[in-house]
Write a structure and sequence with these properties.
Layout lengths: L2 H12 L2 H20 L4 E3 L3 E8 L2 E4 L6 E4 L2 E8 L1 H8 L23 H89 L1
Antiparallel strand pairs: 1-2, 2-5, 3-4
Helix pairs in contact: 1-2
């Protein structure tokens, strides 16, 4: 069944072929727009339409057998509902005539109308604004952290240089002390030599 045949099949219920064509076009357009936007369209008893992201991968050309790189892409996917599956498998019988094959929507679910769509759009906008505000706050916090790290790194470097200066200052007096002690040793050596000479003379 193609689109024209689908329109003909529901023309009697919609009150004419033009009304049926408009209804089919409106339903398909709404489904496509919602899936492209990333929303999931679910029809109770029939199935759900959703957008699925496929990562980049390698595939093989069936004609040449050559390995081909396939880019990351998004594809639409339809999952049949349990009622649809049961009717196709034969576990449930298809109702005759004009009875509804798919379950009717629960009461109150269709009362939102255009106001519900407007509310959803407003909620999405507010969520997007909140997300951008959070991102901006995160960037500011990261910038503050980097500046704080740089400052602490600079203070640590200055502390290291000060410690190095202190150690060199401590080492230099020790060298002076050893230098002053050395002449004392020489004087004691001179005294011993003088004693030896006096002993020899005697």
């Amino acid at each position: 069944m193609n689109k024209a045949q689908l329109v003909e099949a529901i023309a009697d219920k919609m009150g004419g072929r033009q009304q049926a064509a408009d209804a089919v076009d409106a339903v398909l357009d709404a489904v496509v727009r919602a899936v492209v936007a990333g929303d999931r369209v679910s029809v109770t008893g029939f199935g759900s339409f959703e957008k699925v992201d496929r990562p980049a991968r390698y595939a093989r050309n069936p004609q040449t057998g050559e390995r081909v790189r396939v880019k990351k892409t998004s594809v639409p996917r339809f999952r049949a509902g349990q009622g649809f599956k049961d009717l196709v498998s034969g576990s449930k019988k298809l109702p005759r005539g004009g009875e509804v094959a798919v379950k009717k929507a629960p009461k109150g679910s269709l009362s939102g109308g255009a106001s519900a769509t407007v509310k959803k759009a407003a909620a999405k906008k507010s969520a997007a604004k909140k997300a951008t505000a959070k991102r901006a706050a995160g960037k500011k916090a990261a910038a503050k952290k980097t500046t704080a790290k740089k400052a602490t790194g600079a203070s640590a470097a200055t502390a290291k240089t000060a410690a190095a200066k202190k150690t060199t200052a401590k080492k230099s007096p020790a060298k002076k002390a050893t230098a002053t002690k050395a002449p004392a040793k020489k004087s004691t050596a001179r005294k011993t030599t003088a004693k030896k000479t006096t002993a020899r003379k005697k």
